[in-house]
Amino acid sequence: MITVFGFIVLDSCKTDNKSLNSICPSSAIASCAVPQQFFKIKFIDRDQLTDLLFGAKAKYHLEDLKIYSTRYAKDISFSLDSTEQNQKYIMFSTKGTDQFIIKLADEPKDNLLVETKYNDDSCCGQLNITQLTLNNSKIAFTNHSPTVIILKK
Question: What's the pTM value of the predicted model, to 2 decimals?
Answer without folding.
Answer: 0.78
